[in-house]
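To: structure subgroup
Subject: Chain for Friday's discussion

All,

I'm putting the inputs and outputs inline so they're searchable in the archive.
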Amino acid sequence: MNIDERYYGLGSDSPGTDYSTFNNDHSKLTLQFSRTLQKDIIIEGDVFFAKNRFSNIKEGTNPVTPEIEQNCRDYSGVSVKFTYEGRDQNLDPHSGIYLIANADFGLRAAEYSKACIDARSYHTPFHPDQVLAIRGMLVNMSGRVIPVYEYASLGGNNTLRGYAINRWRDTNAALLNAEYRIPTPLPPSFLSGLDTVFFLEAGKVDNKMETIATGNWAVDSGFGFHLDLAGNVIIRADFGMGAEGLNAYFFYNQAF
């Protein structure tokens, strides 16, 4: 699969303009195993093999160096993930909590370890049909050889929707999301299952976990329209405004 990529560099102070661009002939094979330990607890194991071939590189302020390109060429990794499923439903939860804890390790040409905790909760504080969704995520990693695609990253349709995909990368990341979902007041005969969504988000990447909480957090806010198609899938259009302008994302299922 050939995709167009942007590389902004590492760190929360990487500039939003004059980024590097390149084409990537990307392939990734993933083998996944899962088992239910208890009613609400699932363990998953993944093994993946990745290959990347860069071309048409146009250098920006932070260049795509030969080392970055070499670290991404051929590598593999393993991941172990524990999930606690405490939501009332998977597709559009109105109550409960959802916890994900995973550890990733690079193999072959990659040498890194990464841990992530992702906690989500759902509430109906004002009306049974209006949902307040809250999320907090923390990522910590270290290693001698880290492919650029394995860094903790923020920006895009599931993290900071007011910024470009993978706008920030580094070895540590923190993220906070809050979203309020309200049924859109339209006649059922016209369009049923449409929610209007308002969200506020903040996040930061850093090369040290000790300083992740201080200064230079990226913040965005926005709104969207989420359409539930008969309980099978949600199609959404989200519009987020951050310090670097407006971004629009069209995707499926909830951001969290």
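Points worth raising on Friday:
The mean pLDDT is 95.
The first helix runs from residue 66 to 73.

D.
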